[in-house]
Every structure is written in structure tokens, then in C-alpha cells.
């Protein structure tokens, strides 16, 4: 797998996540509220974040991970596309709390969805979210994702065994969403 291409929107530059993003992402990954619905708990040290970010920055692992930046090259979160079946990927995202409710997550995720459908020729992108993660559910619904099902007892996390809600967006639905 090649490095992820840099993607841009009017406000954002999405570029390959790098190991040296750890210091910028530590405030995100150590924030208990941000990490509440993540698969692992808040990071306790910069070293923990450095290891985590370095593992996400490696190429050829079955996913593409973009750092979200505001045209200043400072990572404030990321969007990831994880390989699934042929022409299907899972999308995930995390964002610094200072940028919540400002449309940054929607803009970044929509940009990666565009790339996935237009360039990678995906037919299906899905997201897996906790039933209580209202912010993520609202974002997915605003982007046109459809609720597809509940996986009971799917994840064992730092807050216990959790169900998972699956939301799906098909390429044809995305094309319809984008028509004026």
C-alpha cells in the first residue's frame, strides 16, 4: 500500500499521519471525554501516544490514516479507512474537543468518503459506533449513513463490554446526497 494522498477542503488539509504527530495528538488521546467511546482508554503518557500514533502511521497494515490539520500541519485528529472485504472499508475518526460542533469532523469525513468512492471505487463504507455515542451517530446520519444493525456485546473496552451500532453508506447513496 502506498502512502495516503493528501486531500484538501476549503478549511482542512488531510495528510498521512506521521509518528511525529504524537505530541499534537496527546491532548486528544489523553482526554477522557474524547476517548470515552474509543476502543481503548485515555492515554496516560506521551510515550503511550507516541507508540499508538507510530503504529497508525506505518504503511501496509490494511488501513489508510489521515491526520486532520487546519492548513498549519498540526494534527487535531484523524480519519482512518480500514480494509474490509473487496470494495468495502470501515471509516473511523477522532477529533480534538476544541473543534467539536464546528463542522470539522463532517468536512474531514466527507472528504475521505469522496476519496473512497471516487478514487478507490468502494461500493460500501461502514462505521461502527457505540449506541451511546450521540455525536458520532448524529454525524453519520448527517452524512447519509443508514443504520443497519446492532452487534450485541461486540467490544470489551475500558468502560466494559459494549454493543456496537453499524451504519452504512453505499456509493450510489453518496452520489445522490451530493446532487444539488
From TrEMBL:
SUPFAM superfamilies in UniProt: Acyl-CoA N-acyltransferases (Nat) (SSF55729)
Signal peptide (residue range): none
Keyword check for Transferase: yes
Organism name: Sphingopyxis bauzanensis
Lineage of source species: Bacteria, Pseudomonadati, Pseudomonadota, Alphaproteobacteria, Sphingomonadales
Keywords in alphabetical order: Transferase
Spans traversing the lipid bilayer: none
Pfam family, one: Acetyltransf_3
Listed InterPro entries: Acyl_CoA_acyltransferase, GNAT_dom, N-acetyltransferase
Presence of keyword Transferase: yes
Domain (N-acetyltransferase): residue spans on this chain: 12-166
Molecular function via GO: acyltransferase activity, transferring groups other than amino-acyl groups
Name used for this protein in its record: GNAT family N-acetyltransferase
